[in-house]
Hints:
Layout: H1 4-8, H2 21-32, H3 35-70, H4 78-98, H5 103-132, H6 141-170
Helix pairs in contact: 2-3, 3-4, 5-6
Amino acid sequence: SAFFERRQAGEQVGDFNGWSLLTDQAHIWQAIHPALVWVYYVCVLAALWGTLQAYPDVYARCVTEYARAIWPTRQWNQRLIQTLICVYVFATASAVIWSDIPFNSMTLLVNFLATTLGVVIAMAAGLYLNFKLPRAYRTAAPILLAGAFSTFVLLAVALISGHTLWQQLTTR
Length: 172
């Protein structure tokens, strides 16, 4: 293994202290062939660029579609929503980066906001939207109950996760 020599030397390989995750992973490719390190970094940058490029558009479309479904009489400007999302992301990302939050705490916070809490909000919005639809388009009662139960369970998990995250962030 690429990490065998480092482990033999007493180095903690699995910790990925700080921001060295990409560099540590690049050692795997280095062990196979040195040219693969550059391929690895290019692929990481391409994946990052693709994610960052799509993020504002995807979120703006989702917000616009939900808003149009909930308030169909109002006009919704997707470009304005996308601009507001971009400004928000830039401002909060800048604040987080300059706040000197440890890498581990930063990833935990982003994970909580983007996935744990985000899924709960999306499920609650879906349930709300279901009741805004005409009766003929609403989901069947058993599916609705299963969705409500799932939302409740995920909300409980999100609250526990949020409390744990808060404890970790405030006791550093």
